[in-house]
Specification:
Number of helices: 10
Strand content: 15-25%
Number of strands: 12
Largest sheet: 3 strands, antiparallel
Radius of gyration: 24 Å
Helix content: 25-40%
Shape: elongated
Distance between the termini: 53 Å
Strand order of the largest sheet: 1-2-3
């Protein structure tokens, strides 16, 4: 029964493997496997990723009631294979405790966190290895975003790269990320790591600032001029972060609508920086860069 389950799991994780068996020849034991096209090979032709899958699945089917620790399960696996393995590990975690040490956002699942998984960020500094844990309160706050089907990008793999970031600047929307990211490149300003495709609004900025602060990730945020209330909260609660409020309502000019008049931004409606705000934005971004550099000093 265990062998059938093991074989089923391997085929689920590596669909290109049709079958496998252990052979014995000339006093030598070896693994032989068959691929989907019917070709037969020995295990010495395995890629590192496939070989790793055999070991991981074997550990997870160990009948002993023990904790399983897996170091960098993503090694030599392409993104889709990582996603399959992450889902499989999450299912097995219902039966036993599993500890993962990973550098891949594909192994961080908001559903797992909602179900009780813990996430720790390890960081080395002059005092050794520091471990910082995400609180249940912040996890619950972030998981509320999963119900927003109109903004799936807020919790996708690009967004989850923040867990591995040396720094992060939170911007309210997708336009902010596109315009400021392009401006940084065109102006030759030293790169700043921006969060995903924006946080989806000022209130969400507060959620993500809480996350970055708990994990000791140097962080900052730029709020639209209309988000003064959230800006004030951020300044009061996250004193180690660098917080900026735009001097105008939005990042870009927006035409009037039946609900509101013309919205003014630091970029015009075509996405070009306005002359009067060019110096302001250059100086602001350089101040963010200086702030992050200071935070990252050993």
């Amino acid at each position: 029964e265990e062998q059938v389950a093991y074989q089923t799991a391997l085929q689920q994780l590596a669909p290109q493997l049709l079958n496998w068996k252990i052979e014995y020849s000339d006093d030598f034991t070896y693994l032989e496997y068959t691929t989907l096209n019917g070709s037969t090979h020995t295990a010495d032709l395995f890629g590192e990723g496939i070989a790793s899958l055999f070991r991981i699945v074997l550990a997870l089917y160990d009948p002993e009631d023990c904790i399983v620790i897996i170091d960098e399960p993503e090694l030599s696996l392409h993104p889709q294979a990582q996603k399959r393995l992450a889902k499989f590990i999450a299912e097995k975690a219902k039966e036993r405790q599993i500890i993962l040490c990973t550098h891949s956002p594909h192994f961080l699942s908001w559903k797992d966190l909602a179900a009780g998984a813990n996430v720790y960020r390890l960081r080395q500094d002059r005092y050794g290895i520091q471990s910082n844990r995400l609180s249940a309160k912040t996890i619950a706050s972030l998981n509320k975003l999963s119900s927003d089907w109109q903004k799936p990008q807020l919790l996708d793999s690009v967004a989850k790269e923040v867990f591995f970031a040396d720094e992060v600047l939170f911007l309210e929307g997708q336009e902010d990320v596109g315009l400021i990211g392009r401006f940084i490149e065109l102006e030759g300003i030293e790169s700043i790591q921006l969060f995903g495709y924006g946080v989806g609004g000022a209130k969400n900025t507060l959620r993500f600032l809480a996350m970055a602060t708990e994990l000791k990730i140097p962080c900052g945020a730029i709020f639209d001029g209309t988000s003064k209330e959230e800006y004030d909260v951020a300044v009061a609660e996250y004193k180690n972060a660098r917080i900026e409020l735009l001097p105008v309502a939005d990042i870009r000019d927006k035409p009037p609508t039946p609900e509101k008049s013309t919205t003014l931004g630091i970029f015009n409606k075509d996405g070009q920086i306005k002359t009067e705000f060019h110096g302001y934005l250059v100086e602001t971004l350089r101040e963010f860069r200086d702030y992050f550099d200071e935070c990252l000093k050993p």
